[in-house]
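Example (one chain per record):
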Amino acid sequence: MSALRPHDYFVTGTDTEIGKTLVSSALLLALSQRGVRSLGMKPIAAGAVLQDGVWHNDDVDSLVQASDVKAPQHIVCPYLMQTPAAPHIVAQREKIRISLPQIVAAYQQAMQLADAVIVEGVGGFCVPLDDRHDTADMAQVLNLPVIMVVGIRLGCINHALLTAQAITARGLRLAGWVANIVDTQMLYPDENIAALRDRLTAPLLGCIPRLNLEDTQKAKAAAAYLDLNFLK
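Predicted structure:
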């Protein structure tokens, strides 16, 4: 599906709340700085608030802000659910059936609008979507190279290596990974990152420090720490 699309990627993470949206937004801005028309997608988002009659999710809004191509919500986020919890639980309670073909269709529409599409997953790589499918299935049907966000905190080496194994087990290519400092009190973060560099075959695209900035400024600052020259 994406063999001739060199700038399309699926962004996953070693856990939830480890910076997938920050990195996805930074990737969009970095691509835009290179003159590549970019669009971010988060096919499934759980947790929304009603503002002026429209449901909003912080992650989706961040991707929209970082994208220089604008698209309707049914493309950017086909499944926006209200409750901030595991998507398979929320979908069942809100009587939503998540359809992978519909997500693929939304991605194909996004391809027609932008030169680069960054698709952000939900939670970690193997989060259930329903009784039969998980986010790994979503990545697999999209068939995009994967960028893995590693939240640098205690346990990150094991989490990253297991996630990388799960990605390759699905026949997907791990194109690169990003180290995102989530615990500033962690002992020996540099040594942990070095251990991952030694063990992961994909290149390290950058290490993002803890950014004490307004949300609107974080993605731009994070983009400066990424080196897209390593992506192939």
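Caption: Strands lie at 9-13, 38-41, 44-46, 49-51, 54-56, 79-81, 116-120, 146-152, 174-181, 204-208.
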